[in-house]
Amino acid sequence: MESVPVVPLMYNMLLSAGGALLANSLVKEFSKLFAKLRMQGTDMCKKSRSMIPQPMGVVTAAIYMIILFLFIPAPFYRWIYDSEPMFPYHRFVEFLSGVLSICSMIFLGFADDILNLKWRHKLLLPSIATLPLLMVYAVNSNSTSVAVPIQLQPIFGAVFNLGILYYAYIGMLAVFCTNAINIYAGINGLEVGQSLVIALSIIAFNIIQILRLESQLSFHLFSLYFTVPYVFTSTVLLRWNWYPARVFVGDTFCYFSGMLFAVVGILGHFSKTLLLFFMPQVLNFLLSLPQLFHVIPCPRHRLPKYDESTDRLTYSVAQFRANELTQFGSKTLSFFEKFGLVAVRKKIEGHETVLECSNFTLINLALKLFGPMHEKCLALLLISLQVVSSLFAFFLRFYLAKFFFNVVE
């Protein structure tokens, strides 16, 4: 029986704790430097509309990378110093490819914060950053088969080989993870808060699987090595980004977080389980589709609207003429209104009908359902939703799956 390597895990946690202390100091120092360089953003949901230093996510991301660089020898010390045979080159290459993909995404995220890249670039760049990951997966594992639910086994068999479609799936998974956090943002603490819940859910899943299945030990250790430092450094960032925010995390943090989750999900061989932890992000993405694809007119910013008189947030709206909508757009708007997902108002201006609808995001939907609320309360509500979703994901993964699969690993 292969034992859990305690020394690398303890070293990982020690480096992570040291990195967290360093992050707290450097975020404070660099926030002043960023402000001097006018690398700032306006806090739209405050009466003061103060300028906040950004993107501070690049600081914690850099510290995270330093932790990983210092940690690289630790998982392999038995082979390096004790002269054990058969050095695990496949694990070493996987580790380096994960580091490379995350590092690439941090660089691209920082470029987006500075250059304000267009959406087509935001979709293309994660795909490029994932290529090292896909190549290593193809060489080391090349497992493209998926288990088929019991109900469909008479048609497809117990296992179905997706072939190249599986690589398309994991490539799209990386694109989704990096952008899903980015579009589910806009209030103090939400980006870091949701990411921390996902990271802690991954750690809990890794620990459960290590205790359950010896055969998957190396996969989940790999995930822990990457995720634990992230939790330590991001907890510090949350302290600075929590209401009232003293720093903004920027797109760098969102891309960095998304790529990290994609790396551990793909190379840790639990990409489908990973998606279960992204349920609020999936819901937000599905809600956003009509505006993302311009079926419904999409304003530049879909942040909640701040009411200075009450110091509360209400849902923001998109305003457009009725004749701007295609027939498909009108049916889409009616569908979302029918199920209570958006609020729609009509008014006559001159000879034209003007439509006003709440923006298609989960944040605005929460404000529509629960009414205006303080920014801090809204952040707590949405992070609580993330926690409940993760608990439901564990229920699906370990209990409900028994009704669809013969073996639940």
UniProtKB/TrEMBL annotation:
<comment type="function">
    <text>UDP-N-acetylglucosamine--dolichyl-phosphate N-acetylglucosaminephosphotransferase that operates in the biosynthetic pathway of dolichol-linked oligosaccharides, the glycan precursors employed in protein asparagine (N)-glycosylation. The assembly of dolichol-linked oligosaccharides begins on the cytosolic side of the endoplasmic reticulum membrane and finishes in its lumen. The sequential addition of sugars to dolichol pyrophosphate produces dolichol-linked oligosaccharides containing fourteen sugars, including two GlcNAcs, nine mannoses and three glucoses.</text>
</comment>
<keyword id="KW-0256">Endoplasmic reticulum</keyword>
<dbReference type="GO" id="GO:0005789">
    <property type="term" value="C:endoplasmic reticulum membrane"/>
</dbReference>
<comment type="pathway">
    <text>Protein modification; protein glycosylation.</text>
</comment>
<dbReference type="GO" id="GO:0046872">
    <property type="term" value="F:metal ion binding"/>
</dbReference>
<feature type="transmembrane region" description="Helical">
    <location>
        <begin position="217"/>
        <end position="240"/>
    </location>
</feature>
<keyword id="KW-0328">Glycosyltransferase</keyword>
<keyword id="KW-1133">Transmembrane helix</keyword>
<feature type="domain" description="DPAGT1 insertion">
    <location>
        <begin position="319"/>
        <end position="359"/>
    </location>
</feature>
<feature type="transmembrane region" description="Helical">
    <location>
        <begin position="377"/>
        <end position="400"/>
    </location>
</feature>
<feature type="transmembrane region" description="Helical">
    <location>
        <begin position="276"/>
        <end position="296"/>
    </location>
</feature>
<dbReference type="GO" id="GO:0003975">
    <property type="term" value="F:UDP-N-acetylglucosamine-dolichyl-phosphate N-acetylglucosaminephosphotransferase activity"/>
</dbReference>
<dbReference type="GO" id="GO:0016757">
    <property type="term" value="F:glycosyltransferase activity"/>
</dbReference>
<feature type="transmembrane region" description="Helical">
    <location>
        <begin position="123"/>
        <end position="139"/>
    </location>
</feature>
<feature type="transmembrane region" description="Helical">
    <location>
        <begin position="6"/>
        <end position="27"/>
    </location>
</feature>
<keyword id="KW-0812">Transmembrane</keyword>
<dbReference type="Pfam" id="PF21383">
    <property type="entry name" value="DPAGT1_ins"/>
</dbReference>
<feature type="transmembrane region" description="Helical">
    <location>
        <begin position="92"/>
        <end position="111"/>
    </location>
</feature>
<dbReference type="InterPro" id="IPR033895">
    <property type="entry name" value="GPT"/>
</dbReference>
<feature type="transmembrane region" description="Helical">
    <location>
        <begin position="192"/>
        <end position="211"/>
    </location>
</feature>
<protein>
    <recommendedName>
        <fullName>UDP-N-acetylglucosamine--dolichyl-phosphate N-acetylglucosaminephosphotransferase</fullName>
        <ecNumber>2.7.8.15</ecNumber>
    </recommendedName>
</protein>
<comment type="similarity">
    <text>Belongs to the glycosyltransferase 4 family.</text>
</comment>
<feature type="transmembrane region" description="Helical">
    <location>
        <begin position="164"/>
        <end position="185"/>
    </location>
</feature>
<keyword id="KW-0460">Magnesium</keyword>
<feature type="transmembrane region" description="Helical">
    <location>
        <begin position="56"/>
        <end position="80"/>
    </location>
</feature>
<keyword id="KW-0325">Glycoprotein</keyword>
<dbReference type="InterPro" id="IPR000715">
    <property type="entry name" value="Glycosyl_transferase_4"/>
</dbReference>
<comment type="subunit">
    <text>Homodimer.</text>
</comment>
<feature type="transmembrane region" description="Helical">
    <location>
        <begin position="252"/>
        <end position="270"/>
    </location>
</feature>
<keyword id="KW-0479">Metal-binding</keyword>
<keyword id="KW-0472">Membrane</keyword>
<dbReference type="GO" id="GO:0006488">
    <property type="term" value="P:dolichol-linked oligosaccharide biosynthetic process"/>
</dbReference>
<dbReference type="Pfam" id="PF00953">
    <property type="entry name" value="Glycos_transf_4"/>
</dbReference>
<keyword id="KW-0808">Transferase</keyword>
<dbReference type="InterPro" id="IPR048439">
    <property type="entry name" value="DPAGT1_ins"/>
</dbReference>
